[in-house]
Amino acid sequence: xAYTTVNKSTDYFNTKLYTGxxxxxxxxxxxxxxxxxxxxxxxxxxxxxxxxxxxxxxxKRIATNLDxxxxxxxxMIKSFASDxxxxxNNGGVNQNxxxxxxxxxxANGAGSANTxxxxxxxxxxxxxxxxxxxxxxxxxxxxxxxxxxxxxxxxIVFFKVLTVANDWRVQYSFVDGSRDRLKLNTTTDKxxxxxxxxxxxxxxxxxxxxxxxxxxxxxxxxxxxxxxxYSKFGYxxxxxxTDGPFIYTGFKxxxxxxxxFTNNSSNDWTLADNKRxxxxxxxxxxxxxxxxxxxxxxxxxxxxxxxxxRREQSNTNAxxxxxIYMAFAEAPLVGSNNVPCTAR
Length: 344
Prior knowledge:
Elements: E1 13-19, E2 26-28, E3 37-42, E4 50-53, E5 57-63, E6 71-72, E7 77-81, E8 84-87, H1 91-94, E9 99-105, E10 112-114, E11 121-126, E12 131-137, E13 144-147, E14 156-161, E15 169-172, E16 181-182, E17 203-206, E18 218-224, E19 231-237, E20 246-248, E21 251-260, E22 270-273, E23 284-285, E24 295-296, E25 300-303, E26 306-309, E27 322-332
Antiparallel strand pairs: 1-9, 2-8, 3-4, 3-9, 4-5, 5-6, 7-8, 10-11, 11-12, 12-18, 13-17, 14-15, 14-18, 15-16, 19-27, 20-26, 21-22, 21-27, 23-24, 25-26
């Protein structure tokens, strides 16, 4: 039985659905906390996956489907607020009558100086939920280290260079013996990464690659450590059947991101959540590496203690292929308050 000190997952992660009105100074509320990382995607039109955070500032935008450098977008998120955020009239986040989904994580505000590594950083860390945002400037040195502020080693880190165009890097440490990496903005297969020291309780380590450590370039890193009953990051093997594998998480999922990283797969990333209508049986996926609208694919069921794959589709369940995933909870299987959750 899984127990957790995070009894209310929505204190740290929450999905918000809303409809745009095309006007400036639009307040989106009901998130339950002041977000520090917000990821917004239009559901019913092709548009980028827009990412803003409190460390870079709410008007600084990058996109999960692009290799583009950071840009200033004054009419996307104008400011973060105590229960959500305030939008401008940019169509990517607030076109009249269009529907949107916003994924929100809580860190610790604008961040503070961290001198733990060989590279100084600005870190906004939430040690309870295992999430931190780290901004730093690369030095081009192999095995350079950067403080992440979590107190435990992160299992997955998303890197994006801000000052020039280059791919996102996804670095994970939960596949046995693997030092491979993925790119969030493409369907690219896993690729080799130079050998560097494994993440520690205070530091993550960098190679000399331009995706995470070119000299004098600015970077943002989103770091995640696993927390029992709240988050789970791992991998599974597909069986190519509509009766697909069951993945135990110890909680009822609210959000699941997946990627096939078997060689020669070249598959999309897929993203499912528990707020957009139709999860389970008629689940609608998002694709973080492109601008597609949400699509009904019937790929995944959210259960009280994990998720089950329901389709023989190569993005999530090709026979013998290996898939990484990261999942956040709607509710723990059993929290420290001994209250059990139930399936849908």
